[in-house]
Amino acid sequence: MTAMSPVLRVQGLHKSFVMHAQGHLALPVLRDVALDVSPGECLALVGPSGAGKSTLLRSLYGNYRPQGGSIRVRHRADWVELVGAEPRVTLDVRRHTMGFVSQFLRVIPRVATVDVVAEPMLRRGVSPEEARRRAEFLLHLLGIPERLWQLPPATFSGGEQQRVNIARSLIADYPVLLLDEPTASLDTANRDGVIDLIRDRREAGAAIVGIFHDVAVRDVLATRLHPVELPGAPQ
Amino acid sequence: MTAPILSAKGVTKRFGSRVACRGVSFDLWPGEVLGIVGESGSGKTTLLNCLAGRLIPDEGHVAYETASVGTVDVHQLSEARRRLLARTEWGFVHQDAREGLRMGASAGANIGERLMAIGARHYGEIRGTASDWLSRVEIDLDRLDDRPTAYSGGMRQRLQIARNLVSEPRLVFMDEPTGGLDVSVQARLLDLLRGLVDSFHLSAVLVTHDLGVARLLTHRLMVMQGGEVVEAGLTDQVLDDPQHAYTQMLVASILPV
After folding, report:
1. Which among A64, A90, A110 has the least Cβ separation from residue B241?
2. I need a surface site. Which of A73, A112, B233, B237 has the fewest CB within 10 A?
3. Does B190 touch chain A (CB under 8 A)?
């Protein structure tokens, strides 16, 4: 197997939070972070709670705004810089290149589960029928009973909402995937289904960065570990 | 990508010695929904009115990329041209539906006269399109001939949205479109607006003080305080990683449910 060249390159990344209500308290979280991820790799961020794993992942998605450094992603056959990018650039990267599985589903009131899942495909210009067909396939694969598909997910259990969230986040074949505890609130059977789905994506060539609290899940999915620690923390 | 559909440069508006908005600049790209958030009195509505040509700014200018005749300076247009643009390529959704509707005309006429303004003449077709839009905004068809005075607040607001979108505008200005409505009515309206923005590839500027509404409907945010934009960015960036002291205070003040 030949080594693939990276599709995500991070260099010298800095991120602090400044809390103005607490006397402008500055909290440095990321200092000089560097990493590369290539297609078919799954990089697991490891480190104690509060070390900045989620901050790093959210910065990669353009959700948090780093003060310095570079996050470059291969997008539509070009390299795009995400640090300081214009909103429409970040949105286009999210629509076509980068998917994010968060721990929680941000519920849109009154929208049916199947439509919640199908939405990212519609935004890419896929026909409603095709988007719906794919949404139903994923919901079925993730064990969401068909009688729930037309209901809004607001009243579902935590595990069901998590699986709806995963279906929504994985419906498009993003070349880069960011996963924040994708199996956090799932039982064993459902966890295994999610693991299979993510492993399939990795083997199909997705470049993945993830936080996996569950060591068994991490062992199955990760091809490499990336330690994360707060600036100034003891080695 | 092409050109911004709306471009504001250094827009400043004073009322006497009071500055309502100062030095506001931004580009709005096709398909984008820009939210303007901030507390009452922060200059949001004044800015919106300047953008839509309803107020003349003291400084700065606003350029609009028309469908057919290139870029125009919104404030250099004659009143007749501006009104034509407002009826054909733009929509304006007021917080108070009474300002955006003709209260003495039937619901059907409120929708139909927009179609006539863009050249529709066939009565049956106009009535058909009006009925279609009424059902799209979830108003029973047997209310087509009622006047909006007989409608509830939520229905009036949905009718106003139908009146604004029936002519398939390219750019819609919205001033607190869900303000003053029950939360259940608000959720339906938000859901409706989201769907319409997506399916018509609308560009929109939305003024709201409700960060939840902003999260659901907008791609980008500008945060205004005392007439100035203190922070701007992707909606989730501004709400999840607020940088400015005022934005941090706004985000921290959201009541949990």
Report:
1. A64
2. A112
3. yes
